[in-house]
UniProtKB/TrEMBL annotation:
The keyword Hydrolase applies. Residues 14-100 form the Acylphosphatase-like domain. This is acylphosphatase. It catalyses: an acyl phosphate + H2O = a carboxylate + phosphate + H(+). Keywords: Hydrolase.
Amino acid sequence: MSNDSGSSDAERTRAHVYVSGTVQGVYYRANTRDTAREKGIDGWVRNLSDGRVEAVFEGPEETVAAMVEWCHTGSPAADVDDVDVEYEDPEGEDGFRVRR
């Protein structure tokens, strides 16, 4: 483990995202997980009881921004109405998973 107090090439950031629309039952979470892993992003994704999907992405700012942009389309069967995003300080997520 390196603890170099943030002297990495790219600043890490954390995006907390809420996606609304037809985003449950359309493989949105699985596609989000696969895309995040391809991009090397840490975090998680889960369904909310109100029909939205909630996700957290941690990684280099540019990559996280690209992941947030991806959320506007999501899985091929999804119909995204809105993506709410708040940027926060990273909390050290490791790996990407689907939460229940």
